Amino acid sequence: MIDFGRFYQQIATGPLAPWLEVLPAQLSQWQRENLHGHFHQWKKSIDHLPLLSPQQLDLVNSVSADRDDLTPRQRLGIETLLRQLMPWRKGPFSLYGTNIDTEWRSDWKWDRVLPHISPLEGRTILDVGCGSGYHMWRMLGAGASMVVGIDPMQLFLCQFEAVRKLLGDDQRAHLLPVGIEQLPALNAFDTVFSMGVLYHRRSPLDHLWQLKNQLVSDGELVLETLVIEGDENAVLVPGERYAQMRNVYFLPSAAALKKWLEKCGFVDVRIADHAVTSTQEQRRTKWMTSDSLAEFLDPENPQRTVEGYPAPLRAVLVARKP
Ligand SMILES: C[S@@+](CC[C@H](N)C(=O)[O-])C[C@H]1O[C@@H](n2cnc3c(N)ncnc32)[C@H](O)[C@@H]1O
Fold first, then answer.
1. Which protein residue's CA is at the shortest distance from atom 19 of ligand 1?
2. Residue 269 in contact with residue 262, Cβ under 8 Å?
3. Closest to 262 (Cα-Cα) out of 232, 236, 234
4. Is 316 helix (H, G, I), strand (E, B) or coil?
5. Helices then strands (H, E): number in the chain?
6. What are the pLDDT digits (tens) for 234-264?
7. Averaged pLDDT for residues 28-57
8. Quick one: pLDDT at residue 312?
9. Measured between alpha carbons, how far is 149 from 135 in angstroms, rounded to an integer?
10. Residue 78 — pLDDT band, cuts 50, 70, 90?
């Protein structure tokens, strides 16, 4: 089982302590009732990984770790165990000679986000829908004092725990397998990230309220999501699928999203970045061998998805809770 006890101890005496009123019960219920069919297999792979302290560690420009004293056999052992946690979607990671070339160049997203946000030094951060935790490590690299990620996907939890073990069992980052809707209003994080989540939410304004409820007063929200071109009244509600994804509900324009944030009480709302997702940023690799963006676009008109909608365009908005 994953041990969340150290996280509970860490938050017991600080501003996150009220979380302990619900979180331990939610996570024990999850461990009892909701484990994925492959979870024990994934957990075995984590257990077989060595606990290593990196001699070379970079979280500032990448997520990479290495040591000089590993044998080729030990390196191969690490690669084999990491392969058992495929598919790897968010990364890349370079761990003791194994380069995990993930479906997404999540580092490109980070490069688009980081220049526009308040410095992360010393901040306590919540990363909602953190995936494998790639950006959480980059947040630590940018000086955050503690990063909590939440994501209900259990494979991502296992990938995160594998990486954490290989980064020396770093206890400044924690991933919890819960959804944003399970969090009480903590009003305790200096920065909250929601990247790639809003379009998966059936009720996007409620999502914005839930994010606001996690921030301290004066805290910063960093919101990244799929958008469409258009004015403040433009919103696309796709049919059954968008770019082959089933669970996509609302794609507003960036101007509409700004208005939604203001309606929820955020101030100083800025549209910081717009970027078309390219087939270099999201693609099939040896670590994620299924269809990817190239197969989700109309082969005759890559400006459109296979369903005929505008191809993926993403925006970053930054806002402050008063
Ligand atoms: C497109 S991925 C984005 C991952 C990462 N934040 C990034 O930007 O690369 C969306 C993530 O949100 C997670 N997610 C979906 N519903 C969620 C919820 N209710 N609360 C928290 N995370 C959720 C999914 O499991 C998935 O890992």
1. 179
2. yes
3. 232
4. strand
5. 10, 17
6. 999 999 999 999 999 999 999 999 999 999 9
7. 94
8. 96
9. 9
10. very high
How far apart are the two ends of the chain, measured CA to CA in Å? 40
How many other CB atoms are there within 10 angstroms of residue 295's CB atom?
14
196 lines ligand 1 (CB under 6 A): yes
- What is the 8-class DSSP label of residue 310? B
Q: Decide: 70 in ligand 1 pocket, CB within 6 A.
A: no
Q: What is the mean pLDDT of the chain?
A: 97
Identify the pLDDT of residue 263: 98
Answer yes or no: is the C-beta of 152 below 6 A from any ligand 1 atom: yes
Helix/strand/coil for 104: strand
| The pLDDT of residue 1 is above 80 | no
- Ligand 1 centre and the CA of 197: distance in Å? 5
- Cβ atoms of 244 and 296 closer than 8 Å: yes
Give the H or E element holding residue 135. Answer: helix 134-141
Cα 135 from Cα 233, distance rounded (Å): 31
CB 172 within 8 A of CB 140: yes
The answer to whether residue 283 scores a pLDDT higher than 80 is yes
Give the pLDDT of residue 35: 87
Please say whether the beta carbons of 311 and 304 come within 8 A: yes
Task: Please give the helix or strand (H or E) that residue 82 lies within, else none.
Answer: helix 72-83
Q: Are the CB atoms for 220 and 245 separated by under 8 Å?
A: no
Q: What does the pLDDT read at residue 34?
A: 84
Q: Are 216 and 152 in contact (CB under 8 A)?
A: no
Distance CA 141, CA 253 (A): 32
Ligand 1 centroid–CA 148 distance in Å is 14
Nearest CA to ligand 1 atom 18: 179
Residue 238: CB within 6 Å of ligand 1?
no
